[in-house]
Amino acid sequence: MSNRNLNRNRAAIVFEAAIQAEDAGDLRKARRLFARASLLDPAAPHPRFALATVLFEEGKWTEAISVARQATKRWPNVNPAYSLIARSYSELGRWKMAERFFHRALKVKQTPGIWVLLADALDNLGKYDETEKCVRQAIKVDPDYEEAHYNLGHIYRLKGKPGLAEKYLKRAIEIDPKYALAYAELGQLLSGQKHRNSEAASFLRKAVKYDPNDGWSIAYLANALWKLRKLKAADEQYRRLIQLWPDSAIAYWCYGGFLSYESKDNSTAERYLRKAVEIDPACEMANYNLGRHLLWWDQETEGKKFLTRAAKLGHPRARELLHKRGG
Fold first, then answer.
1. How far is it, in rounded angstroms, from Cα 260 to Cα 270?
2. Could you tell me the residue range of the domain that residue 54 belongs to?
3. 15 near 21, Cβ under 8 Å?
4. Could you read off the pLDDT of 189-210 as tens digits, one per residue?
5. What sign results for the dihedral spanned by CA atoms 277, 283, 286, 289?
6. If 306 and its partner were Cys, which of 6, 163, 187, 291 is the partner (CB 3.0–4.6 Å)?
7. What is the CATH number of the domain that holds 26?
C-alpha cells in the first residue's frame, strides 16, 4: 500500500475518532483529532470543515474563520464553509463581513436558513427594508420554513402592523405546534390589544410550557393574568419569574408593583421594590416604580428622591410626576 493510501486510511480512522469525541461533548479532543486527520489527508475537505465547525462551537470564531477561509480557497463551491465564516463574523459583531459571506454562501446554494441569517445581519446594519426582503426570499425557497414566518411576524409587530404579524406568527405555529418563540411573540402582540388578554394568556402559557426558562414569556403571562383579574395565578407567575431571575431588577419591580396594587401588605411590596433598586441602582424603571409607590404611601421625601434619580436616568413619566408634586 502506498504512503498516500496509508495516510488516507489513518486519516479516516482519526476522523471517526474525532466524530465520536465531538458526539461525547469533548470538543477539545475532537479539535485535536480533526486537525490531525486534516494533516494526514490534506486532499480531503471533511476534516478541515469539521475542524472549523468545532472551533466555532468552542467560540474560537477568529480561528474558525481562518480555517474555513483556507478551505474555501481549495474547495470554493462548498456552501457550509461560507455560511460558517459569516456566522463567525456575526458572533464577532462584524456585520458587513457577515453580510458579504452570507451572500457568497447563497451564490453557491439557496437555503432558507442562510436567507434568515443574512436578514439578521442586515437588521444589525440598519438595512430594514432589505431585511424583510430576505425573510420573504426564505419563504419563497421553502414555504414551510417556520423560522422565516416567525421572523416576518416579528418584523411586522415592530412595524406596527399587528394583523400581518398575527398572520405570520400563526403560520409559524401551524408548521411547528411546539414553537415556543412564536407563541411568545404572539402572546406579547395580543397582550397589547384591547379585549384579547385571554388569548394572549393562552399563547403565553404555551410559550412557557415549551420553554420553561423564557423569563419574558413568564413576565408577560403574569401581566396578562393580572389584567384578567386572575390574581392567584398572576402571583404564582411573578414568583416563578423571581425564582428564574433572582438577580434581575425587572422581576422584583414587577412583583412589587403587583403587590402594591393588589395586596394590603404595603411593607412586602416595598421590600420587593427596594430590592429591585438594590440589584440595579441605574435601572430607571426600578427607581420610578419605587418612587411613585413611596409617594402613594405618603413617603414624600424619599419618593421624590427615587423619582429624581429615575428622571435623570431618562424616565419621562418620572419628570411628569415630579412636576405635578412640585419637585
1. 8
2. 1-76
3. no
4. 999 888 899 999 999 999 999 9
5. positive
6. 291
7. 1.25.40.10
